[in-house]
Amino acid sequence: MASKYAEAGVDTAAGDLAVELMKAAVSRTHGPQVLGGVGGFAGLFDVSFLKSFERPLLATSTDGVGTKVAIAQAIDKHDSIGIDLVGMVVDDIVVVGATPLFMTDYIACGKVVPTRIADIVAGIARGCAETGTALVGGETAEHPGLLGPDDYDVAGAAVGAVEADRLLGADLVADGDVVIALGSSGLHSNGYSLVRHVLAGRKMTYAEHSNELGGLVGEVLLEPTRLYTKPLLKLLADESLASSVHALSHVTGGGIAANLARVLPVGCWVEIDRSAWSPQPVFRVLAEWGGMALTETEGTWNLGIGMIAVVSADAADAVITRLVTSGVPAWLVGGVTVGARDLTGFEQGAKGVNGGAVRLVGAYPA
């Protein structure tokens, strides 16, 4: 006989099966620091190594992937959305110079479909493995009546550690520093409400093929977020270069200028040269479909820059070479100037941070 809970729409047996299906993928992210395996009330992580730190600082971040999940649901493809989640959470940890230690996830859904949940978590596990982060726990919550049977949302949180004297940030940024762009893989996980609005205006479905985009619309739009953690940690572990890296900025919601301004000190300004790179076709096509100039989308999409490094000028070439060797496109886009000037048209800080001033200048290559 079905339980009253099952009659109410919650299938605990399906939840248990989902856990069984994801166990192998999750376990592959575990090293000797993870205790207790999968399924406990709390994840356990041995931090004895922090005893060797002079002054250990813990860094934490939490985020989701926004309305990108709607596209995954529309084409029933769920194996990469977890990589996006790791990108949004773990790559925020490395911005301060911290090494990510562990992550937990949360999936809310209208109905637990075990294979779907397992696909989502497998993607999270792949992202965690790529960034060296242990996936130590999570929760799948079934919310019938609140979410439709095929609806879900994902979120996660991570913790990292950094030695206090290796912390990156605005206080290290100096006059004459240069700004290096790290290429994105595409839209990453921001601005999808605008993407969906553009496609709705054209009455396009995600299952359609687009010659302009070069494939099925939904699959192109689900291109996973590029993960920067390991290449950046490798760069910061190089004692010949580490002290030359002063600040990092993860280009997420708000675009290039606003996110860079958050990690600059008050009193400095940067002009980002648009002519230094060419945004990928996905940005150009979507902007054209929406009747927008690329410049009108700069506060919404990353336009080809997923992370930014502010470094001393004498180390710029070496930093770029190291990043490119690690598989991350990187190039010079501007410089830091300290001093008074008219800041009309500049972004000045964001998300509660009273930071420096940034604006984009010039024109994108045709």
TrEMBL record:
InterPro entries: PurM-like_C_dom (IPR010918), PurM-like_C_sf (IPR036676), PurM-like_N (IPR016188), PurM-like_N_sf (IPR036921), PurM_cligase (IPR004733)
Subcellular location: Cytoplasm
Record domain PurM-like C-terminal: where: 175-340
GO molecular function: ATP binding; phosphoribosylamine-glycine ligase activity; phosphoribosylformylglycinamidine cyclo-ligase activity
Xref: SUPFAM superfamilies: PurM C-terminal domain-like, PurM N-terminal domain-like
Domain PurM-like N-terminal: 58-162
Major subcellular location class: cytoplasm
Pfam family, one: AIRS_C
Catalytic activity: 2-formamido-N(1)-(5-O-phospho-beta-D-ribosyl)acetamidine + ATP = 5-amino-1-(5-phospho-beta-D-ribosyl)imidazole + ADP + phosphate + H(+)
Superkingdom: Bacteria
A Gene Ontology cellular-component term: cytosol
Pathway of action: Purine metabolism; IMP biosynthesis via de novo pathway; 5-amino-1-(5-phospho-D-ribosyl)imidazole from N(2)-formyl-N(1)-(5-phospho-D-ribosyl)glycinamide: step 2/2
Biological-process GO terms, alphabetical: 'de novo' IMP biosynthetic process; adenine biosynthetic process
Keywords recorded for this protein, A-Z: ATP-binding, Cytoplasm, Ligase, Nucleotide-binding, Purine biosynthesis
EC number: 6.3.3.1
Entry-linked PANTHER family: TRIFUNCTIONAL PURINE BIOSYNTHETIC PROTEIN ADENOSINE-3, TRIFUNCTIONAL PURINE BIOSYNTHETIC PROTEIN ADENOSINE-3-RELATED
Family designation: Belongs to the AIR synthase family.
Protein name: Phosphoribosylformylglycinamidine cyclo-ligase
Lineage: Bacteria, Bacillati, Actinomycetota, Actinomycetes, Micrococcales
